[in-house]
Design a protein that fits this description.
Distance between the termini: 72 Å
Structural class: mainly alpha
Helix content: 55-70%
Strand content: 5-15%
Mean pLDDT: 83
Number of strands: 6
Radius of gyration: 31 Å
Low-confidence stretches: none
Strand order of the largest sheet: 1-2-3
Number of helices: 20
């Protein structure tokens, strides 16, 4: 049976037990569950909850909320400033961005200068750069410390920085030197040299690196946190595992949106006008691409007039070619987004997609041949002559079958080449979206299908 945490927390808040017991009971739940319950509480109940909990706990709860601004409005400015100060810098920036400019300035003026400096440090990076995802919540020690001094520093700073599983190390010039696993520091003997437990080749990122370029390394190492350096190789922040999950979610959401023909990812709470603006640019582009497809069909007017039965199977060719191209596109984008692939591997990927499209096309073209011939035979549908002819039916079935085979093979290649081309010219491969690639495949399939029909029935 699935527990209803929202109901349980609501009952605790509304119970008549002493407030100290209420607080202890609530603290047994994860902050994410408390945040879920907060959304379903009345304003009076939320105010009771704020009074029960410490500001530090409230700040952790608010970090899990989507629309924090509406809940901050229930508190006075000084409390809001204190709560935002206690958040990780990256979360604090997200919250401040939700506020209107006047409230933001007022709250920032009430915050400690050190917190404002941390926020300004992160805010200087654009959303596309990994520096915008970092937090200043980390512990750093000098490589010249001994084991005892290092442990003393960790214990002292752990009260303010809860990212303690990895301890970072700098040299005498404040350059990033490496990292220490907390477990290694705990079990080290007091007289052991600190240098022996420092991982000097620890992976790191520069703050101005593009998020999309970091995805592969973030996935491959799967660390608790990653150091972020400035141009002088000084440690200025870390990206935690929570931040990594958020980054991956944002990137996947962005790619999903582009594959669906959107300029950006949408959410349920945004306005209709905002959604229209995100969808309209691609739809306009696809409109003109669709007109190209229509114009191409009009160029085969003689084929359509002489062989109207051919039109019956047009959607079959277009749909299967589009589906095949989209499959290759999805596989290619997935590979490009999680790995740093070399040219040799890209060629291997394209060749594989051609082979897959060739074999799938062969199997489906044989099935299509049987289906089309049976359809024409059973309905006695004439093709180019006034009366039904077995020879004409076989030729029409062969055109559909061969067109399907050729189109699926070529569209598999197109689906893998297009995103690779975009990558090479430094454009996000995901912009080679599903609707875009499908329209290109339609153009190719139309040319193959009606071209073969013209050659087999009219040219000869």
């Amino acid at each position: 049976m699935i527990r209803d945490y929202v109901l349980e927390l609501t009952q605790i808040i509304e119970s008549n037990i002493p407030e100290s017991e209420k607080k202890n009971s609530i603290l047994q739940y994860h902050e994410s569950d408390i945040a879920d319950a907060l959304v379903n509480l009345s304003k009076e109940q939320r105010l009771k909850l704020y009074r029960l909990l410490d500001k530090e706990i409230v700040s952790e709860i608010f970090a899990y909320l989507n629309n924090v601004a509406e809940y901050l409005e229930e508190l006075d400015q000084e409390n809001v400033a204190d709560i935002i100060e206690l958040m990780d810098s990256d979360d604090a920036i997200d919250v401040l961005e939700e506020l209107n400019e006047e409230d933001r300035k007022e709250i920032v003026s009430l915050m400690e200068p050190e917190s404002v400096m941390d926020i300004n440090l992160i805010d200087q990076f654009s959303e596309e750069q990994i520096g915008s995802k970092m937090t200043t919540n980390f512990i750093i020690i000098s490589k010249n410390h001994d084991i005892k001094a290092a442990m003393k520093t960790v214990i002292k700073e752990a009260a303010e920085n809860d990212n303690v599983s990895t301890i970072y190390v700098e040299d005498e010039y404040h350059h990033f030197y490496g990292a220490i696993d907390l477990r290694d520091l705990i079990i080290a003997r007091e007289n052991d040299p600190l240098i022996e437990i420092i991982k000097q080749n620890y992976p790191y990122f520069y703050a101005n690196e593009e998020v999309t370029d970091c995805i592969g390394k973030l996935r491959d190492y799967a660390l608790d946190s990653y150091p972020i350096l400035n141009a002088r190789n000084e440690l200025i922040g870390v990206v935690t595992s929570d931040d990594v999950v958020e980054v991956l979610d944002e990137e996947l959401g962005d790619d999903y949106a582009k594959l669906g023909g959107l300029t950006e990812e949408e959410n349920l709470n945004e306005s209709i006008i905002s959604s229209v603006k995100k969808r309209l640019p691609w739809l306009i582009a696809l409109l003109f691409l669709g007109l190209i497809v229509s114009s191409l069909i009009s160029g085969f007017e003689a084929v359509v007039a002489a062989l109207p039965v051919i039109v019956f199977f047009q959607s079959l060719i277009l749909d299967m070619a589009g589906n095949t191209g989209t499959q290759s596109l999805a596989v290619t984008i997935r590979m490009l987004s999680i790995e740093e692939v070399k040219t040799k591997e890209l060629v291997k990927l394209c060749l594989k997609e051609i082979r897959v499209g060739f074999i799938n096309g062969l199997i489906l073209s044989l099935l299509a041949f049987l289906f089309v011939f049976c359809f024409l035979f059973l309905t006695k549908q004439a093709v180019s002559l006034e009366e039904y002819s077995h020879i004409e039916a076989l030729k029409a079935s062969g055109i559909v079958s061969l067109s399907l085979w050729v189109s699926m093979t070529l569209c598999s290649l197109i689906g893998s080449i297009i995103p690779i081309f975009f990558l090479k010219i430094k454009i996000d491969p995901a912009v080679a979206s599903g609707p875009f690639i499908t329209t290109l495949n339609d153009i190719l399939a139309i040319a193959v299908y009606y071209g073969l029909a013209y050659l087999l029935f009219l040219a000869f």
